[in-house]
Every structure is written in C-alpha cells, then in structure tokens.
Amino acid sequence: PHNSAAWIASADGIHHNSNSTTCGILLNLTLLLSYSRITSAYQVAVFGGSGFIGSRICKILSNVPGCSVISISRSGVPPSWCQEEEWIDDVKWISADAISMLKEKKKICADDDNIDAAVSCVGNVRPSPNWDGFWGLHWDDEVMRRENGDVNVNIAEMSKSLGCRKFVYLSVSYDTAKALEGPLEGYLDGKRDAEEAAYKLFGDDAIVFGPSLVYGGGRFASFGRVIENSLSSPAAKIYQSANNAVRGLSVSNDEDWVTNMVMTPPMHIDIISRAVAAAAVGSLDTATIQPRRQGFYNTEGKPIQMASVPFVDVGDIKRVAEQYGTDEKLAAAIISGVSGKVKEGKTGKLRKVGKWEKKENDPPFEGALVGYKPLLYPLPVAAFFTIAFQWATNIEYPIA
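Request: output the structure for the sequence above.
Response:
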C-alpha cells in the first residue's frame, strides 16, 4: 500500500529505495513540468464509486495529474469516511440507477464529451432478507443474477455508448468462483454474464480482477492484517501443499476448492484499488495478463465456457499494484498521452494522501455487515434442537 506521508508524484508510492533518490527527484520535476500543461484530459467513470472499494479508487485517481473522475452510484454522494477530505471536490458525484442508466447518459457527460475508461465495482452477494425453508437462510438466484449480471451488462453498454475504450470489472477469484458455482449459482451466472458482455464490447481492452476478501479502512483493518499474515505464513503454505498432495493420491483429480478459497489470504483495500487504477489509466501492461481460466460446470454437471477476457487473479493483484499502480506510474501513464487527449490547461496541485480516520457518523465497519442479518436465521432453529437434544439425553428413564 502507498505510504500515507508520500507525495502523489513521489518516485515510489509503494516502497522507497534510497539508491533511486536522484532519479526520483528528476522524475518528479518532469511530472510537475508536464502537469502544468495538462487539464483533466483523461476521464474515468467509476460505477459504485460511493462504495468501499469504489471510493478508494476514486481517491487514488483524483490525485493523478490530468485525470478526471466521475463517480456513479445510487446515493450520488461520497461516503461518510471521506466527506471532510479535499479530494472529493475533484470528483463529480452522480446519482443514477444502473438498471435504467442508458436513459441517463447526459447525467454522466455532455453530448460532445466522452469517457476514456470505466470501472465497475457493482455487485451483491447478500442473502435474501425473507425467511425461506426450514433454516430460513437462502440466496435468491434470480435477484443475484440480475444485480451481478444485468446491472453490469447495462454498465458496460452505457460505457461503450459514451466512447469508453477501457473497461475494468471487479469479479471474484477463480478459487472462489469454483467453490461457489453450485451453492450460489445465480451469483456466478451474473458474474459470467457481466464478463461476457465486457469482452464482447471491449475485447482485450476489458480487464477483469478476481480479488479475495478485501479489508482495510474501517473494515476489520487489524483483524484482516492478522489473517493475511497467518494465511501467508510458511505453516499455512505447508498445510495447503500437504492437503493437495494427499488429494493427489485420490483417483479423482478434483481440487479442494473450498479449502483453496478459505486459505486464500485477504487483500488490503489499497492493493486492489491501485491495481484497478493501473488498469483504468493504461499503465498496466496487458501482455502480462493471462486469459481467464476455465473448468466451470453448471448444476447439471455440464461444462460452461467463460469469456476469455484478460483476468488478473488474486495471486497477481499485488504484483500489478506494486509494478504498475504506484503514484509515479499512474501519473506517467496520463502524461505520456495514453488518453491521446493531452491539452493545454490550468496548473494542478499536488496533495498528500492521508490515512483513513473513523468519523462519528460512520456505520460500523463501513457498512460491511449491512444486509447480512439473514445469516443469523439458522441460529434459533439450531439452538432449539441443541436444547431439545440436551434435554432428551439428560432424562433419567426408569428401568423396567
């Protein structure tokens, strides 16, 4: 993650090397001189920009010289954690419904303008709020497919109609998709619909990211770091290697996808945000990205083909962030004319990126638990049967 005390145009926003101080100073001067001739020429639209990940992407991109950021979300306002920060004034906050978004193009930009890149952080994996069945807990496949698929298909089509040349979509990691392809069929169907639409409209200029669980900011920052370090430890790697070796002795070649998913370390919010920002501005070298892995099946056991879209899986996201998502690389991508629209304009300013600080009106864990109350539905039923079992086993029956 970037150093909170580092300048936006520093020589290295991920880590610092004292041996490159001279080169860093020269590069900073070059960036400053170049930025004096640039207005906001490269426009990035972030769909879901008021959310946990989307707002961090907006923050990073808004501090890149020459980059203009548009946030589109249902609320149309910055989240509470950043409402007192300066950078939100550099972002255009728009309220729009993704289902009917094609009718609201003028909200995003004028008829004679367009966007250069779009990022979609829109998705939903929350269980249904309605009690269903014996245990109560369930996911509505139809709703899941609509809110993960149809919504993102609309976003991709909207972006294409606005002249967008790059499209970045946040999906799920390969191991997570394999583990959930049966239990959460609607969720994965929706993700597949979105990826297919993105690839059909943008080809190899569509890039899909597959992160694991994301922590940081107000969402379990300390706990997430502990879990990440634990699952990245040699002991965890030895366990997973041993587990795979034992499974290799089986006549079945199937991998233990649930274990793979559970043993995948969570990811800090700054890592995924910087990696996505790199893809949006074009600093990411797409030649280093592999096509999406296949091997998916439906509930009937029949193979399903996913779109062969460039896919950055969880294991490569940190490398992308460190190699292509530094402040220097993001700024250089804009200045070098990636957008093809460098203009003469006003001189910008450089600002420090501050650390997240909890505000008084922030929801707990930045709203991470909102909508997940149904996960508690099975508890009363389980408690009833536990008490009944204990009562039944403690009865002293008379001996005949």
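The chain has a mean pLDDT of 76.
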